[in-house]
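User: I'm writing a short report section on ligand binding and want a predicted complex to refer to. Could you take this sequence and magnesium ion and write out the structure as tokens? A short remark afterwards would be nice.
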Amino acid sequence: MKILTIKEIFKKKTLINKKIFIKGWVHTRRDSKKGFSFLNIYDGSCINSIQIIVNNKIKNYKKDVLKLTTGCSVSVIGIIINSIGREQNIEIKAYSIKVIGWINNPETYPISSKKHSMNFLRKFSHLRPRSRIIGSVSRIRHTLSYEIHNFMNKNGFYWISTPLITSLDTEGSGNMFNISTLNENNISYKDKNLIKNNFFGKESFLTVSGQLNAESYACALSKVYTFGPTFRAEKSNTRRHLSEFWMIEPEIAFVSLNEIILFAENMLKYLVTSILNQREDEINFFSKYWKIDLIYRLNKFINDKFIQIEYSEVIKILQKNYKLFNKNIRWGEDLFSEHERFLSEKYFNSTIIIKNFPKNIKAFYMRLNDDNKTVASLDIISPGIGEIVGGSQREERLDFLDKQINSFKLCKKNYWWYRDLRRYGTVPHSGFGLGLERLIMTITGIKNIRDTIPFPRTPYNINF
Ligand code: 4AD
Ligand code: MG
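Assistant: Sure. The structure tokens for the complex follow:
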């Protein structure tokens, strides 16, 4: 007999009175005085669990059914019936139940059917996908990833698998994990140049961004994107930083800053719309969980035009409101999270796009504006989270790029192939990076980025 998922059972209206076979885990068990037990079974295929009614006449009722606790795995053969007086309109009358796996020491099983704090769940990252909240995040994360590829494909983009191991620091911030095969045993202490003995014969790192490689392909295939894990060795132990996170990086040839901004806004709105359409149950669950109206908030995200504002204008606003901040900001300085929060949550109460930052606080590859002071850059700030997108038009003029490489004190030789893109048929091009986990925070209301990725990596935390 074919196993049906709980998702299929709720979807197919034609299954009423049909015999079915399911497998899953016990969420709760309740025994009535009339000789019945009610089991709630989930299998993760959707947010719902299904109620199973078990009659005490079933052979193993006393031996097994009455001993079931949260987390036991079972298979059930039964018939689907219409139920009365329940939120969900169907349930299963069991013919037989088999226990696949018991819970050893139910008293100490961490994932009970009660609500747990996110902090508690994090300590059991291997078991937490069994909770409704992490199960819901996982399904949303899947749908988002799928829709990212879908959106890109529909818009004529090619997916480029850029390398995770690199020798270049794309963002120039020095926050890279060094990779090495050298260890105490194979280091020759007489050797003055250890690096030459290392695996690649060169210093090598986990990449912070696939952008530079993506640019090479955009300068041939016009519209490309990378989507994969990226790594940052920042010692930022905050609720919005991970040491390993996933980034979507579109890169488009023949496109300027204003066009890439419009593209980013469209893409974000498409993705949020897809989640509202396909993951309504999960969004409703999160609304109840946090006691906020997420549907309203996400519809506002989709329907309001994102507010665009120049960096220089932002500084004027912040200076007028200096009393609200710990530190008075000056033109040329980067925004702190308190500034971003004030702007997006209080001043504009909207998703905002800040444009044209000073060249000194941004990366070397950004295109210099005619004012000689700012670069054609963008940051998208989401209320409650902060920066979710960072991007720019790229410097396509070789002489300008070389000046930047020099002023950032980068080694020109290492960028020979990147410079070649400017030497051979150069074109204006632009792109950005969207942090998948920060987008999940925006969509679900999750407050700590550690709860948006299966096994978070953060400073001093490499468990699981
Ligand atoms: O602003 P960032 O550093 O931009 C780049 O890496 C560019 N090379 C992207 C490009 O233009 N192709 O990072 C882009 C986004 C941020 O806006 C944020 O959403 C996310 O990546 N991000 C992080 N997410 C989680 N943890 C961290 N430590 C993050 N650092 C950046
Ligand atoms: Mg940034």
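A remark for your report: The longest strand covers residues 19-31. The domain at 128-173+208-451 is CATH 3.30.930.10 (BirA Bifunctional Protein; domain 2).
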